[in-house]
Each structure stands twice: as structure tokens, then as C-alpha cells.
Specification:
The structure is a single chain. With about 600 residues, this protein is α/β, with parallel strands linked by helices. The chain is built from 21 helices and 22 strands.
């Protein structure tokens, strides 16, 4: 009736849905409280009624404080069972934010610690254990790792750090709910613990990441243990009434051979090896090596230089026009960040944006680009250029509840109408974090801001996003535009996207248009807007050509590109400057 398998006989798992005030207990929690589901009607009030009268005030204060600030909490208290027995319980719980709207939920693990823990031991558990799984937390794990590094340096016996990440954890969370995800983490923790030595340290670092310290364990043996742990994770686990099979990617970082290694650097090395394993193939094991060390050194250098570059205002914004395929006029511009590195020159975003996301700099960069782009669009508007500006945003920006407020403040400060701002997210990012981003996207839609999906068509669930995410515009991935004139399959895909977008009242922008033939093929398919080097390359605002793309040369009289080259050689401009219309509003 409780619906959960148990991590241990004296542990129970529970969930409290704050929106409907519904409480769910596992079978063990009923046993701990001395009742059965058949004889006890479970509500939040009834559950709290077990708490000893002398502990009621403390219990409420801890719970209400955690609800007010979010995060995690731990509380030890007494209960009185129906048979009169007094038991001492320790509960670790996490306040989970709502997936869309509402109050969210609280999930927890309760342990019967009657007669088991003295005060000092209780305090140790509170300070050193993960509240969900009971494993070591990050702080305690780093302490254990630092101690084992010192032992390895003194004895000469090599050890290893393992970083383990579940490959399908997000799918379980999204398809079965967070309670199922928490159950999975508890079962994985139990499986890992059962395959390690008493001298090994096991921790949950957060989310679905686990870490292990293997003292006196050379690299070959560490890889064997890593494979055994991966196999343990791969054992089917019964979640939500049916077996689920997942895999894990493992990174191995040996220690003891270098005097400059620290707990923090080793954790980074293990994490890098794990990431390499995950990108190679799910369920792989990678050992940190010299090639990765060089990569890590370059990454740390780039990170330091990027932080300095942000402080020194080395980032700038380029703009690439989005053209109307009807008359060649620009309807908007995409804002593209560039890094003016003092030694390397202009650094394209692909070389530093992923790093910025990993190290937490993307918010500062993204906010600056957004503010700059809105200010520029407002300046164009004052000059008579009615262009919308399109800005790329990161999932890390969108998951913050305050992001929509920040956008509103920027629009107010720059006096830019909301419909002239379009925010772009890549399809890949949406596929990974769509549910978490939807609340911000809806808030942005309420402001009147336009929403676009970038690089559309590459993901396996592309069309499902059109139903989930409040969109205004689709940008078709350049990989399909490249083959539109030569490959019938690509042409058919582009035609299908255009047709679907028309049915859904969405605008379509073709990305990466570089050839005249692609331009005319897109027009023939009914696409209204395009972007690419054929029309203009990205450029600073003061160097941007907003004159529009000339449609004077029509296909059918020789090769258009050859005709344009001939025109260039004899001094006739291919692009004819012309007044701008109001196509920006049509695109939006």
C-alpha cells in the first residue's frame, strides 16, 4: 500500500505534495509509526499528530523554516505510537520547487534511531551526511579524500577517486516523477555501498553524481572496481512498480604520484574523465591521463582569462541581419557575443560559451549581451530602423525565477517594446531542460517577448517541443539548409517544418543560407525569412550593412553567383541600399 521498496528496515520514505496537502508513506514508515494503511487515514495533520507534545514546537519551527527558505533540513524528534511506545526518529528532507506553478513538494527519509545515537553521533550525521541517501556529503568527502592523499604520499601506495554519474536519471525523473527519482538514488546508493570495502569512502555529491575514494588501490584495480560499480548500477531496480535498468559513466583519477595534487583538483580530474566517458558512450569508464591534464590546464587558463575578460570589458556584441525572402529587407538581427582576447584576437562563442556555462559565468555574459542588444535595438528604432533583436539565452538563465523580471527591467530601461525582443534557445537545451524552463518562458510570453527555438530539426523529440514550449518562431537547423538544393530528403524536411509552422501560426527562419540557389529554393517552399552569409556576415553595430539584400538578379539567366561576381568586378554593387519597411513586426 505504501508503494515503495525500503532502503533499510529502520528507514522509511515519504512525500508531501504541498499543492493538495497529500502525504504518501512507504510501508516501512507505517511500521515505524505502529499503524497499517488499512487502519490509518494519512493526512499531513494526522502525520504530525504522532509527534510528542514536547517536540511539537521544535518540529514545526524546523519544517516551517525549511519551507520558507527552500533547500534541505534535518530534525530529530520523538513520536508516540498508538500502543504507547515512544520512539526517537531522525528525518532528513528536501523542499523541491514546483515543476510548473504551485507550492512544490517535500520529500524525505525518516530513520528510527531509538537508543542508537548519542548526541555527538547525531551531530556528526547532521553535518556530514547527505540528507536523502545517508552517504557522505561533499564537504565530508573532500576531508576524507585529503586525508587519503596525505597517507598515499607518506606510504607510496597509490589510490584513486571515482566519479560516477547516472546516464538515464533525468528520464526517470521526467517520466515517473521526482519521488521515483529519489527512490532510484536511494537504491543506487545501497547497491554501491554493498560493493565497496569498509576503508572506501562513498558520497553523493548532489543530483545523480556519486564519488568514491579508493585508498591503496592502483589504477588497474581502480578500473576493476569502477566496472563492478557500473555493473551494480546496471542491475534492474524496481521503481514505480516495474524494473528499470540504467547505466552509469565513471571517471577514474589516480592519486599519490604527484605532490601538487589536492582534493579539489582530483575531484575536477575525476569529473573530467567521467564527462569524457559520458560523451564517448553511456556506461563507459575513462581514466584521467596526461592528455586530459593538458586539456584541463588549458581550460583553467581559459577560465581565468575569461573571468578577467569579463571584468576588463573584453566582450562585445556582433549582429547578423535576418532577411525577408519577399523583398530582401532586414527584419531583425541576431546578437552574437564575441570575446576580444588580448593575445588570441576575436574568439568565437563556440570556444568559450560552453566553458562559461560549466563554471557559472554564463549568467553574467548572457545578461550583458541581452542589455546591450536591447539598447542597440532601441537605438535602431530611434533612427527609423524597425528591427527586432534576437538574443540567445542559456538554460541556466531560464531556470531562475527572476529572469523574466530582469528582462522586464531591461526593456523598461532601454525603452524597447517587448515584441522587438526575441529570445532564442537551442533545441538541444530545450530537450534536456524543457520542463524546468517552461515557467520562465510563460512569464516572458506574458511580457510580450517573442520566443524562438534555434537549430530546429536535429533532435529526436523536436515536434514534441512545439506542444510543450510557448513559441513564436522556429529557426531551421543549417544542416538541412545546406542540402536543400541537392538532397531531396533535406528539402522534404524543410518543407514539412514550414508547413507545420504555418499550421501552428509560427514564423520560420532558415539558418546558414550561403548560396543563391538555397535562397530561391526557400522562397519556392514558402519560407519567409532567412539568415546567413549570403545576406551579411556578423559585424559590430557600427559596421553593419542594413541596406537590404538585392533581389534584382533572378535565376534562369546564367549562374546567379557568376553574374554577381561579374557585377562586382565591373563595379556594380550586388547589394542595393534601400529604405527599411515594417517586416520586423511581420516576422514577430
Amino acid at each position: 500500500m505504501g508503494g515503495f521498496s525500503e532502503p533499510a528496515a529502520d528507514h522509511g520514505v515519504w512525500e508531501w505534495d504541498l499543492d493538495v496537502d497529500a502525504v504518501t508513506w512507504s510501508d516501512a514508515l507505517y511500521r515505524i509509526h505502529g499503524v497499517t494503511p488499512d487502519e490509518f487515514t494519512l493526512t499531513s495533520e494526522a502525520a504530525a499528530g504522532f509527534v510528542h507534545a514536547d517536540d511539537q514546537k521544535m518540529f514545526r519551527e524546523v519544517l516551517e523554516g525549511a519551507l520558507a527558505r527552500g533547500g534541505e533540513g534535518t530534525v530529530q524528534y520523538r513520536i508516540i505510537r498508538p500502543d504507547g511506545a515512544v520512539r526517537t526518529l531522525m528525518t532528513r528532507f528536501s523542499v523541491m520547487p514546483p515543476e510548473r506553478e504551485g507550492l512544490g513538494r517535500v520529500v524525505g527519509v525518516t530513520q528510527d534511531v531509538t537508543g542508537k545515537l548519542g548526541l555527538e553521533e547525531q551531530l556528526w550525521h547532521l553535518a556530514n551526511e547527505d540528507s536523502l541517501t545517508g552517504l557522505l556529503n561533499r564537504r565530508r568527502f573532500l576531508d576524507e579524500l585529503a586525508r587519503e592523499i596525505a597517507v598515499a604520499h607518506r606510504t607510496g601506495k597509490l589510490g584513486a577517486v571515482l566519479m560516477l554519474d547516472l546516464d538515464q536519471f533525468k528520464e526517470v525523473n521526467d517520466s515517473l516523477g521526482h519521488m521515483a527519482g529519489d527512490r532510484l538514488l536511494i537504491e543506487v546508493a545501497r547497491g554501491l555501498r554493498g560493493r565497496l570495502r569498509a576503508t572506501d569512502a562513498l558520497a553523493r555529491l548532489g543530483g545523480d553524481e556519486f564519488a568514491v575514494v579508493l585508498p591503496a588501490c592502483p589504477p588497474d584495480e581502480a578500473c576493476r572496481v569502477a566496472a563492478e560499480l557500473a555493473n551494480a548500477v546496471g542491475t534492474p531496480i524496481k521503481i514505480a512498480g516495474r524494473p528499470r535498468r540504467i547505466t552509469a559513466s565513471v571517471g577514474v583519477a589516480p592519486f599519490g604520484a604527484r605532490r601538487d595534487e589536492t582534493a579539489d583538483t582530483l575531484l575536477v580530474e575525476a569529473d573530467l574523465a567521467m564527462y569524457r566517458a559520458k560523451t564517448t558512450r553511456s556506461g563507459e569508464i575513462e581514466v584521467f591521463d596526461e592528455a586530459m591534464r593538458a586539456e584541463l590546464a588549458a581550460r583553467l587558463t581559459t577560465e581565468a582569462e575569461l573571468r578577467a575578460g569579463i571584468e576588463e570589458d573584453e566582450l562585445s556584441v556582433f549582429y547578423q541581419p535576418i532577411a525577408s525572402l519577399v523583398d530582401g529587407s532586414p527584419v531583425g538581427c541576431e546578437a552574437l557575443v564575441r570575446w576580444n582576447h588580448p593575445a588570441r584576437g576575436l574568439v568565437p562563442p563556440a570556444e568559450f560559451i560552453p566553458l562559461a556555462e560549466e563554471v557559472g559565468l554564463i549568467g553574467a555574459i548572457g545578461d550583458r549581451v541581452l542589455a546591450t542588444a536591447c539598447e542597440q535595438a532601441s537605438a535602431w528604432r530611434r533612427e527609423g530602423f524597425n528591427l527586432y533583436v534576437s538574443v540567445n539565452v542559456s538554460p541556466l538563465q531560464l531556470v531562475h525565477a527572476e529572469f523574466a523580471d530582469f528582462v522586464r527591467d531591461v526593456l523598461d530601461a532601454t525603452d524597447l517594446p517587448a515584441p522587438l525582443l526575441c529570445l532564442e534557445m537551442t533545441e538541444t537545451a530545450l530537450l534536456e531542460d524543457a520542463r524546468e524552463m517552461v515557467p520562465s518562458l510563460r512569464a516572458l510570453k506574458d511580457l510580450g517577448v517573442r520566443i524562438a527555438i534555434d537549430d530546429f530539426g536535429g533532435g529526436s523529440s523536436s515536434f514534441g517541443l512545439l506542444r510543450m514550449v510557448p513559441l513564436d518562431l522556429i529557426k531551421v537547423d543549417r544542416v538541412f539548409i545546406e542540402g536543400i538544393s541537392e538532397r531531396p530528403d533535406d528539402r522534404a524536411i524543410v518543407a514539412a517544418v514550414i508547413s507545420l509552422a504555418e499550421e501552428l501560426d509560427l514564423a520560420v527562419v532558415a539558418e546558414g543560407v550561403e548560396k543563391e540557389r538555397q535562397h530561391w529554393d526557400l522562397r519556392e517552399l514558402g519560407c519567409l525569412y532567412a539568415q546567413g552569409f549570403l545576406y551579411a556576415a556578423p559585424a559590430p553595430s557600427d559596421e553593419l550593412d542594413l541596406g537590404g539584400y538585392s533581389l534584382a538578379v533572378q535565376p534562369g539567366v546564367g549562374d546567379p553567383s557568376e553574374i554577381r561576381e561579374f557585377m562586382r568586378q565591373i563595379g556594380i554593387p550586388a547589394n542595393v541600399r534601400r529604405p527599411l519597411g515594417t517586416a520586423a513586426e511581420e516576422a514577430a
